[in-house]
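Example 9 (inverse folding). The structure is encoded as follows.
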């Protein structure tokens, strides 16, 4: 901070001392990282120095400066360090000072000379003279003290603090005193949790300091701002990705708890019949739930620490590399989330336990004997309601995207609608429940089709599934949710990674884009030379005389570069304007001039961004020299139709006539939204480069290059240097893609999606085995009776296999279908944290067959292993055990 003090005060530095104390207290309070150095700098400006031995010489403007600890950190390159005045010989009224190399080189003051000092606009010299006793350097340039470098002290005379204080207090009548406080901190100890409080403190302190006449500067403030924006974007993205997974885990816990409680309902009813009350039974499960939750609370944070370290090595979806481990630690917030998770897990146990603890033996037998009727979700049509909320979420996303596009606001500046966190999960559950509403009808139809022809195994399976309890549907919904989330995470990961590559290629336009430095030559004609006629006569514009001329570098150098498959010139003008023939004018047009045939071979463009293949539009350009492709936004705003004539110009170029041959809204390198690099225009016009150059003065163009995949970036850079090419703009999409893949946002997203994919499949497998194990145990009597009635073990196994096919198989197939549909609809919502210019080209959902095969293979292994385990369990059933169990 800086402060001008009133020199008329008796103690001119008293306000400084008081303010210095306040600054030190406030800075120490608000900055959470260790302070490395601090310096209190007093600077007296606007002084004039005249050599004592040459009083008629011209004066030089200088400043006195002192800083805490500065003299001890200086090393004299010439002469000595200054001594304070109280160590000078008696009667010597000279102040010793040192200067930097830059000050000595400027010639304002010289080493070894003594100067009289005059305040600004005063002819009376100060009582003390100043002698330059040394030229100094920093003793240790790596010392954090020199964060602002020695250049800060250029044209200043460095003296001891007490000498400057005495000078200010006793002799200086001016107001040109400047005081500042400089601090350097150990930024390496700054954590992500410290960033937000520090940023808030700096903003608050800046406002307070300004009211006191201070100016606060934090060199890293812009870095903090960028970090805060990216942190908010990453946090929002992770919430969108994690909420479906968290809901699935809660659903899994609830399902397992429900199965366990149902398995023990008979024992609970017996306890109630023998005198146990509701509270006693319920407390039994409270103790069990608390013990399990505490076990999870103790182990969970450390398991999460290991998972986070693994996610830090993510280089793509299900791709892990050797990378330096993330600095992950367990904090108080970690345990806060762990406590919340433990509480949720406890609730999933206690809710079904509370219901079961109220069941008497009579109610339990009645429940077994009677049909429970339609479940609550069917009566309330919760499936339809969930799908409706999901559709509403899609609508909210569209509205939010339009607001970001129209207002230009950053996506993180808009509050995130909580509905967007749940829409994909609600959609999966809603459609899954709709499937379960319809599925029994399908089973009944299947039963009636072959009721007289089905073998016993199929007949028994259809009866069991058709009359199955809600537990079967619970399992089916769980499998649907697990498989759908696995498919959704796989598609989301592939889509995001593919979209990153496509966005880089689209915005760049080609593998390599080079803008070379063209030399501009002023002459009388001001005409350019067409590249088609190197060394030929100048080509004159039609409507007006162009001004200025550029010397075009040889284009052949690019074509002859090793590793270049093909190169083409592309003219780009972001701020062209035009007018309709006989109509209104328009501006803010991105004008591209291309050579159609070569451009189609070099440029990268997605086939689905135009109604037909984009080569057809290049053919339209090639069909006529004056052909133009125009964006639909320009067609609508200017009222154009196909075949209309338009005149285009930019800067001082002549107006050239073109004819509208086609409409395109996307083009390589064109962004309808203004980007942070400044490239972006509302409208688009694409024309033939040769025709454009023939009717305008030659101006610099970009060179778009298709590079041989076998050529590395380092080799290509070396070839560019050897060819004498001096780029003013150079874009290498391969290097940009590497940087993007190492970006924390993409790494975090890939790691989260990989984790969600693996967790969903693992939970699916465990839930599947648990359900069928308990189901077989509950049906021991039924299978024993089947054996007593004469059914072979193979027939019972076949019955079980058919049940798995009708329950698990149908749920898995529905999960694949619903997951694919959810991906098509809701994966684009992951762009909710992206600004408008970052959504060009629009996201395209990618589903990799390899991921589908992985899930299908996992499901096959899961069903096969589960079937083998259950078959072994069935073969161990003894008829006499089943009959005895029935008697009990």
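The amino acid assigned to each position is listed next.
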């Amino acid at each position: 901070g800086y402060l001008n003090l009133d020199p008329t005060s008796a103690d001119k530095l008293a306000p400084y001392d008081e303010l210095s104390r306040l600054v030190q207290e406030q800075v120490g309070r608000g900055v959470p990282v260790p302070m490395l150095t601090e310096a209190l700098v007093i600077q007296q400006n606007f002084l004039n120095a005249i050599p004592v031995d040459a009083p008629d010489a011209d004066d030089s403007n200088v400043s006195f400066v002192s800083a805490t600890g500065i003299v001890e950190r200086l090393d004299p390159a010439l002469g000595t360090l200054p001594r304070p005045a109280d160590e000078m010989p008696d009667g010597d009224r000279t102040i010793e000072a040192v200067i930097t190399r830059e000050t000595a080189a400027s010639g304002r003051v010289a080493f070894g000379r003594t100067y009289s000092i005059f305040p600004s606009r005063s002819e009376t010299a100060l009582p003390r003279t100043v002698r330059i006793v040394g030229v100094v350097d920093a003793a240790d340039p790596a010392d954090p003290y020199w964060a602002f470098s020695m250049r800060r002290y250029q044209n200043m005379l460095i003296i001891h603090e007490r000498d400057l204080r005495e000078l200010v207090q006793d002799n200086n009548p001016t107001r040109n005193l400047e005081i500042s406080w400089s601090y350097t901190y150990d930024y390496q100890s700054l954590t992500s949790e410290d960033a937000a409080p520090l940023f808030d403190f700096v903003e608050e302190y800046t406002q307070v300091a300004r009211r006191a006449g201070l100016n606060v500067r934090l060199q890293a403030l812009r870095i903090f701002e960028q970090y805060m924006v990216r942190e908010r974007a990453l946090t929002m993205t992770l919430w969108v990705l994690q909420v479906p997974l968290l809901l699935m885990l809660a659903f899994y816990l609830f399902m397992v708890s429900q199965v366990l409680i149902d398995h023990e309902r008979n024992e609970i009813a017996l306890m109630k019949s023998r005198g146990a009350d509701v509270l006693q039974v319920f407390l039994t499960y409270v103790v069990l739930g608390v013990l399990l939750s505490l076990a999870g609370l103790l182990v969970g944070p450390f398991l999460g620490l290991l998972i986070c370290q693994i996610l830090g090595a993510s280089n793509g979806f299900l791709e892990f590399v050797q990378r330096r481990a993330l600095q992950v630690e367990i904090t108080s917030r970690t345990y806060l989330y762990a406590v919340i998770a433990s509480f949720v897990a406890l609730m999933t146990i206690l809710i079904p336990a509370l219901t079961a603890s109220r069941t008497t033996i009579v109610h339990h037998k009645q429940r077994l004997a009677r049909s429970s009727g339609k479940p609550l979700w069917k009566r309330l049509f919760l499936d339809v309601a969930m799908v409706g909320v999901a559709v509403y979420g899609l609508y909210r996303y569209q509205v939010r995207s339009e607001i970001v596009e129209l207002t230009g606001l950053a996506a993180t500046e808009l509050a995130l609608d909580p509905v967007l966190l749940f829409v994909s999960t609600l959609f999966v559950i809603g459609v899954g429940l709709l499937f379960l509403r319809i599925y029994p009808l399908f089973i009944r139809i299947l039963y009636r089709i072959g009721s007289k022809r089905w073998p016993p195994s199929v007949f028994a399976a259809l009866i069991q599934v058709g009359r199955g309890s809600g537990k079967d549907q619970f399992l089916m919904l769980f499998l649907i949710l697990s498989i759908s989330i696995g498919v959704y995470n796989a598609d989301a990961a592939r889509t995001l990674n593919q979209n990153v590559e496509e966005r880089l290629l689209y915005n760049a336009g080609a593998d390599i884009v080079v803008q070379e430095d063209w030399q501009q030559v002023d002459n009388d004609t001001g005409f350019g030379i067409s590249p088609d006629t190197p060394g030929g006569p100048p080509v004159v514009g039609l409507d007006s005389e162009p001004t200025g001329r550029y010397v075009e570098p040889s284009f052949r150098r690019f074509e002859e570069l090793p590793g270049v498959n093909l190169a083409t010139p592309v003219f780009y003008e972001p701020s062209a304007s035009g007018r309709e023939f006989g109509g209104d004018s328009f501006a803010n047009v991105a004008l591209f001039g291309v050579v159609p045939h070569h451009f189609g071979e070099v440029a990268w463009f997605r086939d689905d961004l135009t109604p037909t293949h984009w080569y057809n539009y290049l053919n339209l350009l090639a069909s006529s020299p004056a052909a133009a492709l125009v964006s639909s936004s320009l067609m609508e705003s200017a009222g154009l139709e196909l075949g209309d004539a338009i005149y285009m110009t930019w800067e001082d170029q002549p107006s050239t006539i073109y004819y509208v041959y086609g409409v395109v809204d996307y083009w390589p390198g064109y962004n309808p939204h203004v980007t942070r690099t400044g490239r972006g225009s509302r409208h688009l016009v694409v024309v033939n480069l040769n025709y454009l150059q023939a009717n305008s003065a030659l101006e610099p163009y970009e060179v778009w290059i298709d590079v041989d995949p076998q050529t590395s970036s380092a080799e290509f850079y070396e070839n560019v240097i050897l060819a004498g090419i001096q780029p003013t703009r150079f874009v290498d999409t391969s290097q940009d893609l590497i940087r993007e893949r190492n970006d924390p946002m993409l790494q975090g997203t890939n790691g989260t999606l990989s984790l969600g994919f693996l967790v969903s499949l693992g939970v699916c497998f465990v839930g599947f085995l648990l359900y069928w194990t308990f189901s077989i145990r509950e049906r021991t009597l039924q299978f024993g009776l089947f054996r007593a009635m004469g059914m072979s073990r193979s027939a019972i196994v076949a019955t079980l296999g058919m049940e798995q096919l009708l329950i698990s198989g149908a749920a898995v197939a529905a999960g694949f279908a619903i997951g694919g549909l959810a991906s098509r609809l809701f994966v684009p919502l992951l762009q909710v944290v992206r600004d408008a210019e970052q959504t060009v080209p629009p996201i395209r959902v990618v589903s990799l067959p390899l991921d589908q095969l992985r899930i299908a293979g996992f499901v096959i292994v899961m069903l096969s292993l589960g079937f083998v385990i259950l078959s072994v369990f069935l073969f161990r059933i003894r008829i006499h055990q089943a009959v005895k169990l029935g008697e009990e």
